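Hi all, long-time lurker, first post. I run a small reading group and we've been trying to get comfortable going from sequence to structure in the token notation. Rather than ask abstract questions, I figured I'd post a concrete chain and ask someone more experienced to write out its structure so we can walk through it together at our next meeting. Sequence below, copied exactly:
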Amino acid sequence: MQLRYNFRLYPTAGQCHALAKAFGCARTVFNDGLRLRQQAHEQGLPYISDGDLSKQVITRAKKVPERSWLGEVSAVVLQQALADLNTAYRNFFASISGKRKGARVAPPRFRSRKDNRQTIRFTKNACFRVTPGGKLRLPKIGDMVVRWSRLLPSEPSSVTVVKDAAGRYFASFVVETADEPLLESANEIGIDLGLSHFAVMSDGQKVDNPRLLRRAERRLRKAQRALSRKEKGSANRIKARTEVAKAHAKVADARRDWAHKLSTQIIRDNQAVYVENLAVSGMMRTRLAKSLLDAGWSQFVTMLEYKAKRYGRTFAKIDRFFPSSKLCSACGTLADKMPLDIRSWTCPCGAIHDRDVNAAINILAAGRADRLNACGDQVRPPLAVAQVSEAGTHSKLPASAAQQGKVPALSGGGGRQGLTV
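-- Answer (accepted) --
Happy to help. Here is the structure in token form:
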């Protein structure tokens, strides 16, 4: 499995200038390549191949006085910027042709020097390396101080230097890691994600929502008001914008750290983890959008998924249309409706349910039912038309109609039947 290991960089003033030059050259090559392909498309010319594009925007461009400064940075940086453009085009073509699943991918756009995130990438061809003193040596940039928080598990295949909106520099190493299976555990858990409680477990445990953005709103509001008072284009406005970016980065870092710790604990303690496949993008169009962004459900679920794969755990997503909240976990009765303001309810069978705990229990049961057995088939049997002789046939049906099988029988509401309907 390939993973990214991120570390903070502390370049000198001269190295910051060299990095800014590299960011600008990579951005220029990307934009030149995009412009040539757009012009060829508008003129009805064939699609420019990757090799021809590299010759035009890199090899030949270095010989032109207007682009001669491209030779002042590593050639690998320019080639990788063009590789990003080629990848963006391939993803776009695969999306419109239906080969790529998921949301529709937009065509590539021009990069700007005002973008919040500037990146350059070095591969092994660039001969980057970590010096014996622990510094990162990059061609035509120099040795930069790295704040190592952990050891790299293997030799990195590439490193990406990132400058974020807060003016911080990071080195992102791509390394190959081996799977590290943990000792098997007998615990399996279903998780219901929410806003009042971030996660409710099927064993009754509830994890409070940290609401990191809400807690930082006062500091953010103060920084944003200071930014709004600065004159556009002034140096003070640039400083104020950096302060706003730092405040947001602090919230994002705290949220990521909290999600990492919680996901690691859940994967370590449970052999199988099941969650709902929530449509977060759809819920973002509601009045709860700010709270949903603050919770960071998608980030947390992504962490659970890749950590389960790495440590030999089972992870699965339950269908988003599964009625986990309306289904009684004791008898399988399905309630007609369950508004959000109802946090606890009583089933006709007499069971009293906490809404979130009941949903987590149902998610766990559905996840177990969908797992494959040793023969490769599903544990849950396929749905079939109920037989006339089965219990639960509608009592008001005429006996002759039921015996002839002209009307399908209705299931009564047993625990197993209620779960599989």
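A couple of things your group might point at:
The radius of gyration is 28 Å.
Confidence is low (pLDDT under 50) at residues 381-421.
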